[in-house]
Write a structure and sequence with these properties.
The complex is a heterotrimer of chains A (about 90), B (about 280) and C (about 325). Chain A is about 25% helix and about 20% strand. Chain A has about 90 residues and is an alpha+beta fold. In chain C, strands 1-2 form a two-stranded antiparallel ribbon. Chain C is globular and about 75 Å long. Classes of the chains: A alpha+beta (about 90), B mainly alpha (about 280), C mainly alpha (about 325). Chains B and C meet through helix 3, helix 4, helix 7, helix 8 and helix 12 of B and helix 3, helix 4, helix 12 and helix 13 of C.
Chain lengths: ~90, ~280, ~325
């Protein structure tokens, strides 16, 4: 038996109130050890308050060729962005 | 304006600060035998982490998997940091102007006060983890007791160290369970490691006159008082790891009084070599 | 530079008119400084060259633990011991980040280890030189990390996303490495007579091997031209070497140490130092396995791997058992 430990993707919440952010990956035999290893590997400089690990195989990713159809429609919805609207200066900060 | 103490003399200033911090008089100010006991007690704490930190650091670059290499280095780094605190305080208590480095690098074997357990050679990775586990399972309750020390300086160091050691224990426990209850080979190796090191665990719980002095003053717990918790914890973990607790209760001892195994001399020869070969140099 | 002489697979840069439409679109993205991500289409040569380069870089970090790891148990003070251990631990971390970046290209870490252990994959020649005195810890930080940083900083802008992100993290973490090395050198160079001798001796031994870290001149190399077109190599080896020399000479002067090159001199016209090239025959011998420490370094890595097999297998077995137990409980 010499099968390699599975790969885990590591997400860390850097400070209270922020989203978890992908920081990298590592190998571990199971989720519990992946958490421990993530603490040792990715928070050597006090970078985190909370860790998520996800088996890399369990992640479903959009395929690159979807990039157009998935994201371009929202590009055209410029009205979702605050800069779309011109508010006169005299109205004040909005 | 309240009347101020005479701040011109350093002693008075220091005393005023202590009063302000609500500290009692320092134990070493009272009786010479208490100062001696306290110095011994602190060396015992600092030498344990000094020597075990040294042993664990020997793995750096050679561990079975990258993730473990990094994790083990964290443990060693914590222990080196704790050594600086314990030996720093020991030097302060001794009052001879010796720094933590002086105490680490310029004492010979008979002046070292670490447990024999921590100077045992690393063996395979399993033996290293087993030694770490048996030590951590003692170290954490020890630090928890020290957090209630009547000496605030000790309580403060113990508070900081206990956070680190809680994680060491969590990790070493987890790995002992996993390897004990892993493959046939990993089980056999962990059982052999346990059997091999077991006779070096008893020393953790054998007190002497210094311990009695320190316990009376509420500064440090007696070694005996930590036994029940250690036994219960170790038994539970070994059971989960499907490992068999060795039967004998024979204990090698002497480390805490300065009579060591042959291994310590080699550790010191390596560790102290630069300081010994180039006396007085700054690094 | 950690990755030396990485050969790309192609025969040089394909002229645009000979590229397929996919290759053209790919090159356009790179020229527009877009990052390439693992699942994006990429030419096979790009993928293979990157695997070689990133894994070589990762191997260098891992083997690079050893010459400094040598001195952890002999560090002269508790603080120096902690700093050195933290630094060598960082190198393990950097190896890990890089292996993970390479894994996104479809090779496993175990496969990369196998290539290292069999001698098929290379690592930086510098780590086959011995660390003989404590001053070598200073020289390695100052010169070897200094040379590595010179290469790694521009690689933060490399075209492959995971590689670029790993380099950003590595550069951030490495910022203290070179400084701690120089700090050791200062203590030694301004210390006792014996310490000064050690410092000069370390510089004498590490100067030319450090210059070799950038690899032989590649201004005429077709492989380098392709790698630069793909932005997986940002500067030529000679550019980086010159930059390193220009930066290091004043630092040595401050220490009162002499760089072991009698022909080293400032060239007013070019605005750079003229210097003697390292002995490239020695470099090729070291790459072939004839450096002073090749056998020890590789031997140590192979031993760590082989003797750790039972440990890795034990943990895998436990994870499987635990999962089976959980599944059985869930089924009840």
């Amino acid at each position: 038996m010499s099968s390699e430990w599975p790969l885990w993707e590591v997400f860390i919440r850097g400070q209270h109130g922020l989203n978890h952010r992908h920081v990298g990956s590592l190998h571990a035999p199971d989720a519990e050890m992946a958490i421990n290893n993530a603490r040792d590997v990715y928070t050597r400089r006090n970078e985190g308050v909370s860790i998520w690990v996800v088996k890399a195989d369990d992640i479903t990713a959009s395929s690159p060729s979807d990039k157009g159809p998935l994201f371009e429609p929202s590009n055209s919805k410029v009205y979702r962005h605050p800069t779309f609207y011109d508010i006169p200066d005299e109205v004040g900060k909005m | 304006m309240p009347s101020l103490p005479d701040m011109a003399t350093p002693d008075a200033a220091a005393r005023a600060q202590e009063q302000a911090a609500g500290q009692t008089a320092r134990p070493e100010d009272t009786a010479p035998e208490m100062r001696a006991a306290l110095f011994e007690g602190l060396l015992r704490l600092g030498d344990n982490t000094l020597i075990l930190g040294h042993r664990v650091s020997e793995w750096c670059g050679h561990a079975p998997v990258l993730e473990e290499d990094i994790a083990l280095a964290n443990t060693a780094l914590d222990m080196i940091g704790q050594t600086q605190l314990w030996l720093g305080l020991a030097g302060e208590v001794e009052g001879q102007g010796r720094s933590a480095d002086d105490l680490a690098y310029l004492r010979d074997v008979w002046d070292m006060r670490n447990l024999l357990l921590v100077e045992r050679p690393n063996g395979d990775f399993g033996a290293t983890l087993m030694r770490q586990f048996l030590f951590d399972a003692w170290h954490l309750p020890m630090l928890k007791a020290l957090m209630r020390s009547s000496d605030q300086r000790i309580a403060d160091i113990a508070e900081k160290a206990s956070k680190e050691v809680s994680y060491h224990l969590e990790r070493s426990t987890d790995l002992v369970v996993r390897l004990g209850d892993g493959t046939r080979e990993s089980h056999a190796r962990m059982q052999a490691a346990l059997d091999d090191i077991w006779p070096y665990t008893g020393e953790m719980f054998i007190g002497d006159g210094h311990d009695a002095h320190l316990a009376e003053a509420g500064i440090m717990p007696t070694p005996e008082s930590l036994r029940t918790e250690w036994d219960a914890y170790v038994d539970a973990v070994l059971r989960e790891a499907t490992l068999k607790r060795p039967e004998g209760d024979f204990a090698h001892k002497g480390g805490r009084q300065g009579t060591h195994t042959e291994h310590l001399g080699f550790i010191l020869a390596e560790m102290q070599w630069l300081q010994r070969a180039y006396p007085g140099a700054k690094w | 530079m950690y990755a030396q002489m990485v050969k790309s697979t192609g025969q040089g840069v394909t002229p645009r008119e000979e590229m397929t439409p996919e290759e053209q679109a790919f090159q356009d993205r790179i020229d527009a400084d877009e990052k390439i991500e693992p699942k994006d289409w990429m030419p096979e040569g790009y993928r293979k060259t990157l695997i070689r380069q990133i894994s070589q870089h990762a191997h260098s970090e891992i083997v690079g633990q050893l010459p400094e790891g040598n001195w952890i148990t002999r560090a002269p003070t508790l603080e120096r011991k902690a700093i050195l251990l933290a630094k060598v631990q960082d190198e393990a971390g950097h190896g890990l980040y890089l292996y993970c970046a390479a894994e996104t290209l479809g090779i496993s870490r175990d496969q990369m280890y196998e290539q290292l252990h069999s001698g098929k994959a290379k690592y930086s020649s510098i780590f086959n030189y011995p660390t003989l005195t404590w001053a070598d810890m200073g020289a390695v930080g100052w010169l070897v990390d200094g040379a590595a940083i010179m290469n790694q900083v521009p690689l933060q802008r490399t075209s492959f996303g995971p590689y670029s992100r790993a380099m950003i993290r590595i550069c951030k973490e490495e910022s203290f490495h070179q400084r701690q090395g120089y700090d050791i050198m200062m203590k030694m160079a301004f210390g006792t007579e014996a310490q000064k001798r050690m410092a000069q001796d370390a510089l004498n031994r590490f100067w030319y091997p450090s210059l070799m870290m950038f690899g032989p001149s590649d201004k005429d190399s077709v492989h380098s031209a392709q790698s630069m077109a793909w932005k997986i190599k940002i500067n030529t080896n000679d550019e980086l070497r010159q930059k390193f020399v220009d930066q290091t000479v004043p630092q040595a002067e401050y220490l009162g140490l002499t760089i072991p090159d009698p022909d080293l001199k400032w060239n007013e016209e070019s605005g750079h130092y003229d210097f003697t090239q390292p002995d490239w025959n020695e470099f090729f011998e070291v790459l072939k396995g004839n450096g002073p420490c090749n056998k020890e370094r590789l031997g140590a890595r192979v031993m760590a791997w082989e003797e750790g097999a039972w440990f890795r297998e034990g943990l895998s077995a436990h994870a499987e058992k635990a999962a089976a137990r959980r599944a059985a409980v869930a089924a009840e």
